[in-house]
Specification:
Length: 112
């Protein structure tokens, strides 16, 4: 049986989110290329965490990763580096395709 996912205190999670937003704003070359309101998503994440005492590191990193994915930056990632994929086989599942844009449409790309 697997143990509980590791957690961090709310204040530390909020500090991490602030740093995450600063990195997006100062280093992301994709941020200005998309019409995605990342600030609203970051604010929603902060609001969700405000009511908690502690936060699952896996949840926090997953929520940040979803924001990066919405921005469309396929060269960056957010992950919990100490996560043991051997304990969670489902966490490494992937679709056999990638999603991209072509003009104003989305297309699926077959992964060879």
């Amino acid at each position: 049986m697997l143990g509980q996912p590791p957690t961090i205190e709310r204040d530390k999670a909020l500090e991490d989110i602030e740093e995450f937003q600063q990195i997006l704003e100062t280093r992301s070359s994709y941020l200005q290329l998309v019409d995605f309101d990342y600030k609203s998503q970051v604010d929603l994440l902060k609001k969700e965490i405000q009511s908690s005492i502690s936060v699952s590191i896996l949840h926090l990193t997953n929520e940040m990763a979803k924001i990066v994915a919405e921005i469309g930056d396929r060269h960056s990632s957010v992950k919990y580096q100490e996560f043991d994929f051997d304990d969670y086989k489902e966490a490494d599942l992937k679709f056999p395709f990638a999603v991209s844009t072509l003009g104003n449409d989305y297309v699926l790309l077959k992964i060879n």
